[in-house]
Each structure stands twice: as structure tokens, then as C-alpha cells.
Amino acid sequence: MKFLDDTLNQNYNMKRILHISKYYYPFRGGTEQIAQDCVNAFGEDFAQQVICFNHENGNKEDYVEGIKIIRCGCFAKIASQSLSLSYEKKLRNVMKDFKPDVVVFHYPNPFVASILLRVIPESCSLVIYWHLDIVKQKILGKLFWGQNRKLIRRANQIIATSPNYVEGSAWLLKAKDKCIVVPNCINEERLQETQESKTLAQRIKTNNEGKIICLAVGRHTEYKGFKYLIQASKLLDDRFRIFIIGKGELAEELKKESEGDSKICFLGVVSDDELKAYLSAMDIYCFPSITKNEAFGLALAEGMYFGKPAVTFNIPGSGVNYVSVHGITGIEVENRNVEKYADALVLLADNAELRNDYGEAGKRRVVENFLNSQFRENIRNRITCI
After folding, report:
1. Where are the alpha helices (H) located in 19-125, listed in sequence order?
2. Which of 46, 273, 315, 370 has its CA 20 to 30 A from that of 58?
3. Could you give all domains of the chain from N- to C-terminal order, each with its CATH number?
């Protein structure tokens, strides 16, 4: 991407877009990846800046792929919300000096929302990228009820990641006329197999010859539902092998839950080549998330990209059941129903043709809907105020 210095950013022949994200690359997270995808989608046709919290210490300004990033230092984090003494001053300065035509605000971020509502000029359009409702922190959700009303009222457009989430969110239903759907995208370049990943995949298959290889990937936290997968494993026979990639605050608790079950193997954090190897070697992709905190399921789309069937729970209002379609790309079962989850795995294990049909349909669905090319087109063409 061509370098955009401060002089070019003030070029009044280019529309100016300010992106507001919690954090930004090199910090790794779902929201942060989508924020970077947005920036890359608009590309060189727009002058762009990003303001966010600093995932390290103190205030800092730097450039990522030619885009100026203003990072605000934090003094505390409460209920996953970063707090900063410098943020309001920094945001006011950006509004004054950069003079954005459009703000793309990644929600939820209630501390910043309170500041944004005070400082955004009337002449500036506001696009809210609605990643998810605040569902876990119910007290905070009620506390910010009035703020959300003002935010939605002020928005020119609201981006939702799936039609399911629009229909399942009380907030988005109130502003359905402002909502557009832009599905998230996977980074297909990162998922391209290498010789090393192919060699490792073959080794995994050889070491598990005669077994049905199941894979689950994600942070070890409550809403990812790994404990239900572990409980389902206890109902399966020994032909299954279930590999779980990731880490998180529940890692030790999940390992304790799986004690005595030799079918479960925790791999922790793995390299990109190792991830691709397991994605390639698996027979079934397990995605046992249970709440709307899983608003879309990028990891689910990545698993489907490798042409394997998915087994999911039904999550009302989540995009998970939009990404994988029951009876077409995989099997969807009653939320938290361990017995039915195990039954779905057995059905797929017993029927190689069904696994193949679902897997092929899943890859087609990802290629046709959830790649960078579609995301770029959707972002640029569906936001009418840019």
C-alpha cells in the first residue's frame, strides 16, 4: 500500500476516513483483524487514519502499511473495557487536524462511544461496525442503554456481520433501516498450504490411521463451549481423536474435565503451518460455541475452507448458523445438548459420502461469500455515506 503521510492525508480531493478500533495490528484479535481488513478494503482511494488503545504502554503514533495509527495509553481495564486519560484529547485533535468525512466505529467500545458522541462534528458521517451486543456484562449493558440509543440515532449506517445477528439483536432491530450486512472474511493467503504443512498433515494422518480426526480451534473461554465438546467425547467410541488448538483462562479447567479420556488432545498455541496441517488432516470440524458472543465464527469459516463438514450448536441471533448451514455444510444441533452433538459426530463418522458432500458445499460457501475479495466489494459498495 502506498505510504500516506500527513500531507497526503490533508488532501481535500480525497475523502478522509477515521477508523476507531479497540486495538490495532500488531495486536491480534477478531475485531482488530476486521478493522485492518476495512482499512485495506478502502485502500489508496481514501485518506485514512486509525485511533485505538495502545496494547503496550503509553501514547504512541506509528504507521502500519502507510496508515497513521494513533495509540492511546491505558491506565486500567474494567470488564474488558480499556480506560485512558489521554483518549479524549487525542480524539479531539484528530477531529480538528485530520477532519474526517466519515468515522467507522467498531462496537462495542462504550468508553470511547461516550467520547465520540461528544466530539464528532455534525458534518461527519458515522458508520457503526456492530460486532456484537454486550451480552456477558448484563449490568454494563443496562448502564449503556441510553448511550446505545444515542449512538444508533447518530449513526448514518450500521454494519452487521450476518442477517441472523440483525434479526437477533434488540438494538439492531430498532435500526433495521440503517443496517447493512457485510460478512466477515477469512485471510485465504494465510491458509495456503506449504510443503511443510502438507508433510505434517500426512504425518498426522499416518499417526491416526483408522481414526476419525476431529478438530476444534479457539480461545479457551466459556462461550466457546469446549466443555460440551469434551463431554460429548465421553460418549464416543475409541475410533475418534479430538484435537483442540488454543489457550485461555479455562485451559486448566478443560484439561481437568477431560481427565481419563484418551481421545482428547490439547495442542495449545500452534504455528500457522501446524494449524494448516491439522485443518487439512481432519475429518470433521467441531465448532461448539454456545452464545451470541460468537457473533460470526471466522474460525468456523476457516475450517470449512478446508472442505470438511462442521458440527455446531444452534445459537439464536448468532451468525454461526449463517456461516454453516444445517443439512448443507454440516450438522447443527440443540444448544448445549451433548448427546445430540455426539450423535452428529457418529453420523458423520459412519458416512464418508456425507462428510464429503457437506465438506465440498462448505468450501463453496466460503469461497463464494467469505473471502477478502467479497469483503472488499461489500465494504466499498454497500456503505452509501462513503
Report:
1. 30-42, 87-97, 110-119
2. 46
3. 6-185+371-382 (3.40.50.2000), 195-369 (3.40.50.2000)
